[in-house]
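Below is a filled-in request sheet from our internal design queue. Each sheet records the structural input a requester submitted and the sequence that came back. We keep these sheets so that new team members can see what a complete request looks like end to end.

REQUESTER: design group, bay 2
PRIORITY: normal
MODE: inverse folding
CHAIN LENGTH: 426
BACKBONE (tokenized):
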């Protein structure tokens, strides 16, 4: 049927595939001049680019530069349409632009723009269009280091990442304000590559059901105290966001964390290892891929006292029993599902990753060193190594947890193909 239909398409139309279309939003920062290079890199990749500039951006660079680069009118304000039917068409232009383009990239994304996107404030073309936009969003922030590191900016970034937006992290270096540190706009070529990669990413997890655990568990000692593990849940949440964006049905069983729920993901909150185990096995039958990113507490108090322990003795001893090892139990009951475990280690990374792969019957173990500066736990970045059932072991370059989540998913899909392929010579 499809082929017949294709025959009816006029030859000229069939020969000219539709260009991938991108909105390039430009914020008002010194780095706005670099947006011209980004714009050119996007045009060179044969994308059709619609530039939208904020009022502040126009203080730094003239719209004409971008009009010349793209061959299209640059949108400079909500009511700036040059169309003759001005009022009505310009009043809804932001909706049309949002619907007609596949991807929105904002560079430089200033602290103010990040705050507006994060909170849904819509007072100009770019921010109103952002709210109407349903495709992938890539943000390339640039600002002064202190502004970048400020908890307000970091909270906005976390919210935007949880929404599934990709952040092309700023680099470190000499900034226009005279400071040195993080905040420099990423290189235009890196941002253009992120745009290409996002547009080329297929919905390759469509039809798959992915079960993910994340965060720590808390094991009560009495009604007011508990033991737990250091874990922010960010890696597991990043995995859930990435898998959902690639088309999977995702269930996320989460210990107590302060990370917003990813869009389109079913989140089941739990507290203890026992609760996590119960929810995992309730969901096992309908899962194809299981990713155990949770930092499950290894010990708990079997009989939790009903009342608070009083400080009556100088020294307190509590006898703890091991919690059930959910991953190991999954390993023995997984069937042909793919099982991915995590290993946070302080030493002997490869040996420990390979040992856990074997003893817990996993298909992949994602391992990271937790005593490295700025990696692991609460960071948005991580440095990981993968041990695979095929015997391979390799490290991935340090990157944001969101980027690593996609790399891990790529490797999971590759692994499935490798395991399904017939072994020659047998
Ligand atoms: N895990 C689990 N249930 C537990 C403990 C751990 O499912 N009770 C899972 C974690 O979700 C993680 C993996 O096991 O995917 C590795 O966790 P880790 O604490 O590093 O492993 P342990 O088996 O506790 O190993 P060790 O204490 O020897 O480092």
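RETURNED SEQUENCE:
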């Amino acid at each position: 049927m499809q082929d017949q239909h294709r025959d009816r398409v006029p030859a000229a139309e069939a020969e000219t595939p539709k260009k991938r279309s991108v909105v390039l939003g430009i914020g008002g920062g010194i780095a706005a001049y670099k947006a011209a290079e980004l714009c050119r890199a996007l045009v060179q990749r044969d994308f059709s680019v619609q530039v939208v500039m904020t009022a502040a951006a126009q203080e730094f660079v003239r719209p004409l530069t971008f009009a010349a680069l793209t061959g299209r009118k640059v949108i400079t304000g909500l009511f700036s349409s040059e169309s003759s039917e001005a009022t009505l068409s310009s009043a809804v232009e932001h909706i049309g632009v949002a619907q007609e383009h596949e991807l929105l990239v904002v560079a430089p994304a200033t602290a103010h723009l990040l705050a507006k996107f994060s909170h849904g404030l819509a007072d100009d073309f770019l921010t109103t269009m952002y709210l109407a936009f349903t495709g992938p969003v890539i943000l390339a922030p640039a600002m002064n280091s202190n502004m970048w590191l400020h908890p307000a900016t970091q909270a906005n970034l976390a919210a935007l990442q949880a929404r599934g937006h990709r952040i092309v992290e700023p680099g470190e270096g000499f900034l226009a304000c005279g400071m040195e540190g993080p905040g420099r706009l990423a290189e235009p070529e890196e941002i253009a590559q992120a745009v290409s990669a996002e547009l080329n990413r297929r919905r390759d997890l469509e039809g798959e059901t992915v079960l993910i655990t994340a965060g720590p568990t808390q094991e009560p000692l009495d009604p007011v105290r508990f033991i737990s593990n250091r874990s922010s849940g960010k890696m597991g949440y990043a995995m859930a966001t990435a898998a959902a964006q690639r088309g999977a049905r995702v269930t996320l069983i989460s210990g107590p964390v302060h990370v917003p729920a990813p869009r389109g993901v079913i989140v089941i909150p739990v507290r203890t290892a026992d609760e996590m185990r119960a929810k995992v096995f309730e969901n096992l039958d309908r899962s194809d891929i299981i990713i155990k990113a949770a930092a499950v507490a290894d010990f708990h108090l079997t009989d939790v006292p009903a009342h608070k322990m009083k400080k009556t003795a100088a020294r307190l001893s509590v006898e703890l029993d091991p919690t059930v090892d959910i991953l190991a139990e999954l390993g023995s009951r997984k069937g042909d599902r793919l099982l991915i475990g995590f290993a946070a280690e302080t030493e002997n990374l490869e040996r420990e990753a390979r040992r856990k792969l074997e003893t817990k019957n996993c298909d992949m173990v994602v391992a990271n060193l937790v005593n490295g500066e700025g990696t692991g736990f609460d960071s948005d970045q991580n440095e990981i190594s993968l041990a695979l059932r095929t015997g391979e072991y390799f490290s991935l370059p340090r990157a944001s947890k969101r980027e690593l989540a996609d790399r891990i998913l790529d490797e999971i899909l590759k692994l499935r193909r490798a395991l399904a392929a017939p072994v020659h010579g047998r």
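SHEET NOTES:
- The first strand starts at residue 21 and ends at 26.
- The pocket of cytidine-5'-triphosphate is lined by residues 273, 292, 294, 296, 298, 323, 325-327, 341-344, 356 (CB under 6 Å).
FILED BY: M.R.
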